[in-house]
Amino acid sequence: MSQPKNVPPRVDERAEPDVRPPVVGVVMGSDSDLPVMQRCLDVLEDFDIPYEANVLSAHRTPERAHEYASTARLRGLRVIVAAAGGAAHLAGVMASLTTLPVIGIPMPTASLGGADSLYSTVQMPAGVPVATVAIGEAGANNAALLAAQILALNDEELQHRLQAYRAELRRKVAEKNVRLHQRLAESRE
pTM to 2 decimals? Predict the structure, then answer.
Protein backbone atom coordinates (compact mmCIF):
# COMPACT_ATOMS: atom_id res chain seq x y z
CA MET A 1 0.00 0.00 0.00
CA SER A 2 1.66 3.22 -1.08
CA GLN A 3 0.96 6.43 0.76
CA PRO A 4 -0.46 9.39 -1.16
CA LYS A 5 1.85 12.37 -1.13
CA ASN A 6 -0.29 14.34 1.30
CA VAL A 7 -0.66 11.67 4.00
CA PRO A 8 2.27 11.00 6.32
CA PRO A 9 3.61 7.44 6.43
CA ARG A 10 2.23 5.21 9.14
CA VAL A 11 4.25 4.66 12.24
CA ASP A 12 4.00 0.90 12.03
CA GLU A 13 3.86 -0.50 8.50
CA ARG A 14 2.34 -3.93 9.00
CA ALA A 15 4.22 -6.94 7.64
CA GLU A 16 1.40 -9.26 8.71
CA PRO A 17 -2.23 -9.26 7.58
CA ASP A 18 -4.39 -6.76 9.44
CA VAL A 19 -6.63 -8.72 11.82
CA ARG A 20 -8.00 -5.73 13.70
CA PRO A 21 -11.79 -5.58 13.72
CA PRO A 22 -13.29 -2.90 11.48
CA VAL A 23 -14.34 0.35 13.14
CA VAL A 24 -15.86 1.95 10.02
CA GLY A 25 -18.63 0.31 8.07
CA VAL A 26 -18.80 1.42 4.45
CA VAL A 27 -22.01 0.52 2.64
CA MET A 28 -23.01 1.35 -0.89
CA GLY A 29 -26.28 0.86 -2.70
CA SER A 30 -24.69 -0.91 -5.66
CA ASP A 31 -21.36 -2.29 -6.78
CA SER A 32 -21.51 0.35 -9.53
CA ASP A 33 -20.75 2.87 -6.75
CA LEU A 34 -17.32 1.31 -6.13
CA PRO A 35 -15.35 3.46 -8.62
CA VAL A 36 -16.42 6.56 -6.67
CA MET A 37 -16.26 4.88 -3.27
CA GLN A 38 -12.74 3.57 -3.88
CA ARG A 39 -11.49 7.04 -2.88
CA CYS A 40 -13.17 6.62 0.53
CA LEU A 41 -11.63 3.18 1.01
CA ASP A 42 -8.19 4.45 -0.06
CA VAL A 43 -8.29 7.33 2.44
CA LEU A 44 -9.33 4.99 5.25
CA GLU A 45 -6.40 2.73 4.36
CA ASP A 46 -4.04 5.70 4.15
CA PHE A 47 -4.96 6.64 7.71
CA ASP A 48 -4.69 3.00 8.84
CA ILE A 49 -8.35 2.76 9.80
CA PRO A 50 -9.78 -0.76 9.64
CA TYR A 51 -13.05 -0.92 7.73
CA GLU A 52 -15.50 -3.29 6.13
CA ALA A 53 -17.29 -2.65 2.84
CA ASN A 54 -20.63 -4.07 1.72
CA VAL A 55 -23.32 -3.60 -0.91
CA LEU A 56 -26.70 -3.06 0.75
CA SER A 57 -29.87 -1.57 -0.62
CA ALA A 58 -32.51 0.24 1.38
CA HIS A 59 -35.06 -0.84 -1.24
CA ARG A 60 -33.84 -4.17 -2.67
CA THR A 61 -32.40 -5.73 0.51
CA PRO A 62 -34.18 -3.93 3.35
CA GLU A 63 -33.83 -6.86 5.75
CA ARG A 64 -30.04 -6.99 5.28
CA ALA A 65 -29.79 -3.20 5.63
CA HIS A 66 -31.83 -3.38 8.84
CA GLU A 67 -29.70 -6.17 10.29
CA TYR A 68 -26.46 -4.40 9.32
CA ALA A 69 -27.37 -1.10 10.96
CA SER A 70 -29.04 -2.55 14.04
CA THR A 71 -26.03 -4.78 14.85
CA ALA A 72 -23.28 -2.32 13.84
CA ARG A 73 -22.40 -1.18 17.37
CA LEU A 74 -22.42 -4.75 18.70
CA ARG A 75 -19.97 -5.72 15.96
CA GLY A 76 -17.57 -2.95 17.04
CA LEU A 77 -18.27 -0.36 14.36
CA ARG A 78 -17.97 3.25 15.49
CA VAL A 79 -18.95 5.09 12.28
CA ILE A 80 -21.03 4.16 9.23
CA VAL A 81 -20.41 5.67 5.80
CA ALA A 82 -23.33 5.11 3.41
CA ALA A 83 -23.35 5.93 -0.32
CA ALA A 84 -26.33 5.72 -2.63
CA GLY A 85 -27.71 7.36 -5.75
CA GLY A 86 -31.13 8.40 -6.97
CA ALA A 87 -33.70 7.78 -4.25
CA ALA A 88 -30.73 7.60 -1.89
CA HIS A 89 -32.31 6.35 1.31
CA LEU A 90 -29.49 4.07 2.47
CA ALA A 91 -27.84 6.57 4.83
CA GLY A 92 -31.21 7.52 6.31
CA VAL A 93 -32.15 3.91 6.89
CA MET A 94 -28.79 3.29 8.57
CA ALA A 95 -29.24 6.38 10.78
CA SER A 96 -32.77 5.36 11.75
CA LEU A 97 -31.53 2.03 13.12
CA THR A 98 -28.39 3.02 15.05
CA THR A 99 -27.09 5.83 17.22
CA LEU A 100 -23.66 5.59 15.61
CA PRO A 101 -22.62 8.58 13.49
CA VAL A 102 -23.72 8.07 9.87
CA ILE A 103 -22.05 9.92 7.03
CA GLY A 104 -23.99 10.02 3.77
CA ILE A 105 -22.38 10.28 0.34
CA PRO A 106 -24.75 11.21 -2.48
CA MET A 107 -23.74 9.40 -5.68
CA PRO A 108 -23.75 11.11 -9.07
CA THR A 109 -26.66 10.10 -11.32
CA ALA A 110 -27.14 10.32 -15.07
CA SER A 111 -30.56 11.94 -14.87
CA LEU A 112 -29.99 14.78 -12.37
CA GLY A 113 -26.24 14.77 -11.82
CA GLY A 114 -26.64 13.64 -8.22
CA ALA A 115 -28.97 16.43 -7.07
CA ASP A 116 -31.63 13.79 -6.45
CA SER A 117 -29.15 11.78 -4.35
CA LEU A 118 -28.13 14.89 -2.44
CA TYR A 119 -31.69 15.84 -1.51
CA SER A 120 -32.56 12.26 -0.55
CA THR A 121 -29.51 12.05 1.71
CA VAL A 122 -29.47 15.48 3.30
CA GLN A 123 -33.21 16.04 3.94
CA MET A 124 -33.60 13.95 7.08
CA PRO A 125 -36.32 14.55 9.64
CA ALA A 126 -35.38 16.07 12.98
CA GLY A 127 -34.04 13.42 15.33
CA VAL A 128 -32.39 11.21 12.68
CA PRO A 129 -29.22 13.03 11.60
CA VAL A 130 -27.06 12.09 8.63
CA ALA A 131 -23.85 14.06 8.14
CA THR A 132 -23.98 14.59 4.39
CA VAL A 133 -20.90 15.38 2.30
CA ALA A 134 -20.51 16.47 -1.33
CA ILE A 135 -21.75 14.49 -4.32
CA GLY A 136 -19.34 11.93 -5.76
CA GLU A 137 -15.60 11.50 -5.33
CA ALA A 138 -15.01 14.68 -3.30
CA GLY A 139 -17.71 13.48 -0.93
CA ALA A 140 -16.16 10.00 -0.74
CA ASN A 141 -12.82 11.58 0.17
CA ASN A 142 -14.37 13.88 2.77
CA ALA A 143 -16.51 11.12 4.27
CA ALA A 144 -13.38 9.12 5.06
CA LEU A 145 -11.71 12.21 6.52
CA LEU A 146 -14.79 12.99 8.62
CA ALA A 147 -14.86 9.40 9.87
CA ALA A 148 -11.16 9.77 10.77
CA GLN A 149 -11.89 13.01 12.65
CA ILE A 150 -14.68 11.34 14.62
CA LEU A 151 -12.42 8.41 15.52
CA ALA A 152 -9.55 10.79 16.38
CA LEU A 153 -11.59 12.19 19.26
CA ASN A 154 -10.39 9.12 21.18
CA ASP A 155 -7.18 8.33 19.29
CA GLU A 156 -4.28 10.72 19.75
CA GLU A 157 -2.09 9.01 17.16
CA LEU A 158 -4.79 9.36 14.52
CA GLN A 159 -5.24 13.00 15.54
CA HIS A 160 -1.52 13.60 14.89
CA ARG A 161 -1.80 11.98 11.45
CA LEU A 162 -4.75 14.23 10.62
CA GLN A 163 -2.80 17.28 11.76
CA ALA A 164 0.14 16.25 9.58
CA TYR A 165 -2.24 15.73 6.64
CA ARG A 166 -3.64 19.24 7.05
CA ALA A 167 -0.14 20.72 7.37
CA GLU A 168 0.80 19.03 4.10
CA LEU A 169 -2.29 20.47 2.41
CA ARG A 170 -1.30 23.95 3.61
CA ARG A 171 2.27 23.43 2.38
CA LYS A 172 1.02 22.42 -1.08
CA VAL A 173 -1.22 25.48 -1.35
CA ALA A 174 1.68 27.75 -0.34
CA GLU A 175 3.85 26.05 -2.96
CA LYS A 176 1.18 26.60 -5.64
CA ASN A 177 0.92 30.25 -4.61
CA VAL A 178 4.68 30.71 -5.11
CA ARG A 179 4.47 29.09 -8.56
CA LEU A 180 1.54 31.31 -9.49
CA HIS A 181 3.44 34.45 -8.53
CA GLN A 182 6.47 33.25 -10.47
CA ARG A 183 4.34 32.69 -13.60
CA LEU A 184 2.71 36.09 -13.24
CA ALA A 185 6.09 37.77 -12.84
CA GLU A 186 7.44 35.96 -15.90
CA SER A 187 4.43 36.94 -17.99
CA ARG A 188 5.01 40.64 -17.16
CA GLU A 189 8.62 40.58 -18.34
Answer: 0.88
